[in-house]
Amino acid sequence: MLIALVSVLTACAAAQGISGQKQAEKAEQVSTTVQRMLNAKYFTLSVNNMHPASASSKYVGGEFFLEVKGDTLRSYLPYFGTVYRSSYNAGNTLDFEQKMESFQQVRKKKNCTTIYISVRTAEDFFKYTLNIFDNGRFDLYVQPVHRQPISYDGELKL
Questions:
Q1: How far is residue 46's CA from residue 120's CA, in Å, rounded to a whole number?
Q2: What does the pLDDT read at residue 142?
Q3: What is the dotted CATH code of the domain comprising 33-156?
Q4: What is the per-residue pLDDT for 9?
Q5: Domain extent listing, the chain
Q6: How many CB atoms lie within 10 A of CB 132?
Q7: Average pLDDT by consecutive 10-residue portion of the chain (158 residues)?
Q8: How far apart are CA 156 and CA 110, in angstroms?
Q9: Distance (Å, rounded) from C-alpha 146 to C-alpha 51?
Q10: What is the dihedral of CA 39, 70, 140, 27, to 10 degrees?
């Protein structure tokens, strides 16, 4: 009986070792894919939650996104907050496609790449600070000139 118990425990430990190894390999593959997409400046971020400056966080699902394609930023993000200077198109979304004025990518932490983007539209000037983690998750902080700041989180589309 003791031999059977030891055999079962040994088999379980071996299975966990293999499972852990597969998880580590998958994490490494995801990390490599994330870095390749960021370095190519060609990626799409799917937004799950928005965090307005003056309201509680809200789940927004997967229809909203931020996309970088070379030197162009496509933004379709929900917006909730105070607009300091209204224009015809100022509304509930940050919806535009525009050439970026600047794009800076830095690796500040071991598992995180920070990207700074600035873009000017007819309505506002935006600074995006994006932290993309090696597992594909991200945090995004948007600082407009004529609106309250807002932040988002979600996942990189792999």
A1: 22
A2: 98
A3: 2.40.128.410
A4: 42
A5: 33-156
A6: 24
A7: 47 58 91 96 97 94 93 96 72 90 94 98 94 98 95 96
A8: 18
A9: 18
A10: -30
